[in-house]
Design brief:
Blueprint lengths: L1 H9 L3 H4 L8 E2 L11 E14 L2 E15 L3 H18 L2 E3 L2 E14 L2 H4 L6 E12 L1
Parallel strand pairs: 1-2
Antiparallel strand pairs: 2-3, 3-6, 4-5, 5-6
């Protein structure tokens, strides 16, 4: 649910979509064999209910990985930074059909494995985001 909401929300943000060929380049699926970057892949790393006052709350905590790949390292960084800035500015509220209570952590790091993985990998930056959310 959170991945679909995040994807839909990101497709409405011009500072992200302007760096892509189309909003279809944002995916919640496992990374497919791709030959034409740029693209963004959103993946759920882990998810669990939040405990408040000794009981389970209506919020879930999720750790999400967003992979931003592009033709060059500079373009990949620009895309990753745009995603980070947009999500970082979001704060709290409705993200499509999911209410995000808090974004507790956001980190942007360069991926280097494309140098070793073969011609199907492109320069990329990975965002790791931790957030609390509930379905509205």
């Amino acid at each position: 649910m959170i991945l679909t909401s995040m994807r839909t929300w990101m497709t409405t943000k011009a500072n992200i979509t302007d760096l892509l060929d189309s909003s279809q380049a944002i995916s919640t699926e496992k990374r497919q064999e791709r030959t034409n970057p740029p693209y963004i892949t959103i993946k759920l790393i882990r998810e669990f209910p939040t405990i408040m006052s000794g009981g389970v709350s209506t919020y879930n905590q999720a750790q999400i990985e967003i992979s931003c790949e592009h033709n060059t390292d500079i373009e990949a960084y620009t895309l990753g930074k745009a995603v980070k800035d947009t999500i970082g500015a979001f704060g709290r509220g409705l993200m499509d059909t999911t209410f995000v209570n808090a974004i507790t952590d956001i980190d942007l790091s360069q991926r280097g494995e494309f140098l070793l993985a073969g011609k199907d990998r492109f320069p990329g930056y990975t965002l790791t985001i931790t957030l609390d959310y509930t379905s509205s």
